[in-house]
DNA sequence: AAAATTATTTAGTTTTGTCTAAATAATTTT
DNA sequence: AAAATTATTTAGACAAAACTAAATAATTTT
């Protein structure tokens, strides 16, 4: 597998993420995601097409090729292993890891990453609950549902938090919700879409729709 | 302290290393050290001068300013901490650490490095025996002498190996010489400048001038 | 179906870091 | 002290990655 520049890697990773949702990715979406200009996206897309990492016809959207997908998984593996390292070994808080991992992910020594993986004990998920691809690019694909769509009375476990800001971390810490927390929705209120939830045998409490939207759970 | 590009950092580090030896650094020396062309060096020197990291008059040599020296120590700190991490935690061998650290050193989060330092237990020297600057840029300055200049009969401890190749590591492992080994020169042979040395109470053995040149020791 | 709006691409610049070839300065040899 | 050699700088080009402004294509509104 060839080596790509940090810039190319950031584009590849963004396309991978966006195409999970929409199937195909547009110029404007990418420009917005990467905080760059549409014209810059077009330039880079031509380059990545030439390198056979993606397919696209002018004015249609982009899609990674099989090879492009493999490259993306490699970058995501590096990113999430570093995040795990920062949180677990260096005691970074949850909201601090992403920014640093955004740089570390571009150091591409295969040996470094495989040894790091081993040192960390082959973790399956990063500090936000996102799965870490293994050395062959395989990763866990457990069915996760948004907390807002969990039916009342169904026990579930928090598996993933999307938003990685300091603000959401503060709130989650206050509410004592972390990845792995087992909870149940008691009631859904139509007016403001807030949820009443219960953790274990503790008294139930309320969380806002905005918060619930960012929490994914798995059925148990 | 501002942020510098990987390229600028590699130049700064190289100047720092070379000026330790010669006091001042020339265009050709730098070009050779960095495997680049003299014209590229001149370009970069203008840039670093503009940023007040070095002093130079055309056709004289270069010297880092005080600020330039501080920046250099920061890069060296990152480089050596990563080398220590790779060797100690990830079990890289001695000859493999430098190349990877050459990339990792350019990830410049201060918090990352200070936490890494703490995680590693504030190590004083990297795997080759070179001192690691602390968070304030201070580092050990123990007097080291080349093994070829150690007088016969004076006990000393191996503190440092300059050459970092796989080849020298193989030889040192075979001879059971590592950093920290206590030894004594028994005899120096004029003909080929080979040395007879003894480790502890074991039988004495011979090492070549080429090998001895790359080993530094400290008196005990 | 035209017109208006929105999305995307193209054209032309800019910055950073590199290179080759040519010019000039400094040093060494004769 | 010239001449020859070596070191350094300058001039001009190039590639990567970004940007702005203008052109064009696609979509939506009227
Ligand atoms: Mn992340
Ligand atoms: Mn990144
Ligand atoms: Mn090194
Ligand atoms: Mn480097």
Q: How would you describe what is shown here?
A:
Chain A is α+β, with helices and mostly antiparallel strands and 220 residues long. Chain A folds into three domains: 6-64, Winged helix-like DNA-binding domain superfamily/Winged helix DNA-binding domain (Arc Repressor Mutant, subunit A), CATH 1.10.10.10; 77-141, Iron dependent repressor, metal binding and dimerisation domain (Diphtheria Toxin Repressor, domain 2, Orthogonal Bundle), CATH 1.10.60; 145-219, SH3 type barrels, CATH 2.30.30.90. Chain A is 42% helix and 15% strand. The first copy, chain A, has helices at residues 6-22, 27-33, 38-50, 66-88, 97-104, 110-119, 166-175, 209-212; strands spanning 54-55, 63-64, 145-146, 156-161, 182-188, 195-199, 205-207, 215-219. In chain A, the strands form two sheets. Chain A has a six-stranded antiparallel sheet. In chain A, helix 2 crosses helix 3 (38-50). Chain A is globular and about 60 Å long. Chain A starts with 5 loop residues before the first helix and ends with a strand. The A-B interface holds A 86, 89-92, 96, 99-100, 103-104, 107, 109, 111-112, 115-116, 118-119 and B 86, 89-92, 96, 99-100, 103-104, 107, 109, 111-112, 115-116, 118-119. The complex binds manganese (II) ion (4 copies). Residues 79, 83, 98, 101 of chain B line the site of one manganese (II) ion. The first copy, chain A, binds a DNA duplex (30 and 30 nucleotides) through helix 3.
